[in-house]
């Protein structure tokens, strides 16, 4: 197909994810056709820096021949073998063994699905069935946090705390509760970093008391809240949350779909923050996008409850031979090249440069860790008044950056997310910030708020 034909089909035959069709037609679809390292190329062969690892996913960079070769080798053996009914396949077994060896907190047994939303959905169903097996069927409620993102299937969406995603599909599932996030820039308790006593964590205790601990199944948390704009929690946050959860026999689920596999400066963000989860869920970077995969891994005592009882859940493509093969080689590369340490070191440089952008009148806050950063824009820096939703300031910054050769692809109304592949070089880190500087300046001058 030629260029014009591809564009015509994209405009009429493909329903886009999180985009307005009329706006796409007005601006013309952005069609990406190839990538190498931290660079991607569109249908006109224009080069872009991949500033978001195309949705926090391509951690090891594009076009890694080692993974391509591993997938070819697996295809020559068998392309697909289900995990249903007591049947297994070799790469899924090897991946489960690898995850048991490298994950923290004595996590042991894996359940494979197709992506992050499904991993969260699986964890929700798992904890509810677990408590029923243990004789506590009333423990059904799931606690999560406002501004959190845990996926878009109905259970995961019910846990998600972002109004924009929730409202079109209400009423959502019952028994999902939300508490204040560790959002230091917009603290619900009007605290500063100096006066913070992790009131947002202690709020969970009050909620448990009100609802009754005997009704709470689990609490699900991202170590670093991603969609809210790279919210890094205060030092004592998870220590306090864990103490509350343990006192009340509540399972802790760590959502590492975005955080894991080097993104935050360690293999797992839970390790950085001293989080000791009973369940951890993965997606995105577990394969660096070379094939779709999600995973849930649980502690041994949780798994043992299912020895004589079926976990009534499964997916056709869960543990797909190609996906688990991609994950094994991806993890091998992240470990052998110590890309998580690279993210920690070069992420400090990225953060230092990004923080210089607070000179702009619309930049209220810059925050993050490793290669997981965000810029929050405001109408007024003194009052932190939010930008009106109809302005779409961040989206305009994204468009201006794209014209300058920076691909971001995940703009909200008031936040720009920056999360490049872990293999990015210094000159491209500097170029990202340079382009953002110019783009923010352009939009600040051209848009009245």
Proportion of beta-strand residues: 15-25%
Whole-number average pLDDT? 97
CATH H-tier superfamily of the largest domain? Type I PLP-dependent aspartate aminotransferase-like (Major domain)
Q: Cα distance, first to last residue?
A: 43 Å
- Count of domain modules: 2
Let me know the number of strands.
15
* SS-derived structural category: alpha/beta
Query: Strands of the largest sheet, in order across it?
Result: 4-10-9-8-7-5-6
CATH architecture of the largest domain: 3-Layer(aba) Sandwich
SS summary, helix count: 16
> Outline, from the CA principal axes?
globular
Indicate the low-confidence ranges by residue numbers: none
Rounded Rg: 22 Å
CATH fold group of the largest domain: Aspartate Aminotransferase, domain 2
CATH class value of the largest domain? Alpha Beta
Q: How much helicity do the residues have?
A: 25-40%
For the biggest sheet, the summary is:
7 strands, mixed
What does the model show?
This protein is an alpha/beta fold. The chain folds into two domains: 31-60 and 338-446, Aspartate Aminotransferase, domain 1, CATH 3.90.1150.10; 67-336, 3-Layer(aba) Sandwich (Aspartate Aminotransferase, domain 2). The protein is 38% helix and 16% strand. It has 16 helices and 15 strands. The protein has helices spanning 3-13, 21-27, 53-56, 65-75, 90-102, 116-133, 154-159, 163-166, 199-211, 237-247, 269-272, 300-304, 321-336, 339-355, 393-403, 426-446; strands spanning 32-36, 39-42, 47-50, 107-113, 141-145, 176-179, 216-221, 251-255, 279-282, 294-299, 363-369, 372-380, 385-386, 406-407, 415-418. The strands form three sheets. Strands 4-10-9-8-7-5-6 form a seven-stranded mixed sheet, with helices on both faces. A four-stranded mixed sheet has the order 1-2-3-14. Strands 11, 12, 13 and 15 form a four-stranded antiparallel sheet that branches. A hairpin with a 2-residue loop joins strand 11 and strand 12. Helix 5 (90-102) runs parallel beside helix 13 (321-336), helix 14 (339-355) runs parallel beside helix 16 (426-446) and helix 15 (393-403) crosses helix 16. It starts with a helix and ends with a helix. The relative contact order is 0.15.
